[in-house]
């Protein structure tokens, strides 16, 4: 009897023991070489830095409409008990709502908007589907940040994502200042895969989405990457979007200011990069965190 593994060769081994070495990325960052909605200079910058910023995706009116949608969602008592809602440990405030594109029809439309979908397709060089969506609320005074990590490391280990052919869009619904927990990225770090030490516990997501302890790079590797690449911080008005590569090293600080930092976060994965079995976890994470519906997104008509 032959065992057929539903997994390709693991080019990015992680969740190992001992001191793993850094792995040079063997995949492109920008997967399309043809012209498209993203101009050539922006493509080149995204390829080199691993991120790019689209300053005014939404109008002020649209920002207000999505902000009101977030207020409606957080005011829905039934939603708080939903497993897709992550509650802050200390403050008991809502930290994230996952699968928000399936909960909110307004956000379901937004991700099909040509201003967003066309950019994802161009960067990934193919049709795309939503791997994960969430709204993040980093409330004022007690908003907790996210420690340094590569999203792809988790998506590879726990969701079975074969290659870093996914791109995340963080769409700001409040102004992102340097001081209210703005996302920090290490430009160029996406070209290095940082294996992490430690075996993935069963149902790891029940803890990691509040505070990640496994799948966290070593301080030595964070120090090495920071020395090599420096740190940029995404600041921008509400309505601007940060597009960042699945493997870029990023994190955010706490928010002790009165100014909340909320965003809509959508991960687009290439339909050529569909999830397999986890590369380093006992079983896949639930579909609300890592979708296994690989249906390509259909483009909404531009109104
Ligand atoms: O584990 C995940 O999929 C999520 N965790 C973080 C900290 N960033 C990526 C993603 O939303
Ligand atoms: Fe992340």
Automatic annotation (TrEMBL):
Assigned EC number: 1.14.11.55
Coiled coil ranges: none
Cofactor list: Fe(2+)
Catalytically driven reaction(s): L-ectoine + 2-oxoglutarate + O2 = 5-hydroxyectoine + succinate + CO2
InterPro entries reported in the protein's UniProt record: EctD, Phytyl_CoA_dOase-like
Keyword Metal-binding: yes
Taxonomy, superkingdom: Bacteria
Pfam family, one: PhyH
SUPFAM superfamilies found in the cross-reference section: Clavaminate synthase-like (SSF51197)
UniProt keyword annotations, A-Z: Dioxygenase, Iron, Metal-binding, Oxidoreductase
Subunit: Homodimer.
PANTHER family found in the cross-reference section: ECTOINE DIOXYGENASE, PHYTANOYL-COA DIOXYGENASE DOMAIN CONTAINING 1
Family of this protein: Belongs to the PhyH family. EctD subfamily.
NCBIfam families membership: ectoine_ThpD
Function statement: Involved in the biosynthesis of 5-hydroxyectoine, called compatible solute, which helps organisms to survive extreme osmotic stress by acting as a highly soluble organic osmolyte. Catalyzes the 2-oxoglutarate-dependent selective hydroxylation of L-ectoine to yield (4S,5S)-5-hydroxyectoine.
UniProt-recorded name of the protein: Ectoine hydroxylase
Species in which this protein is naturally found: Kibdelosporangium persicum
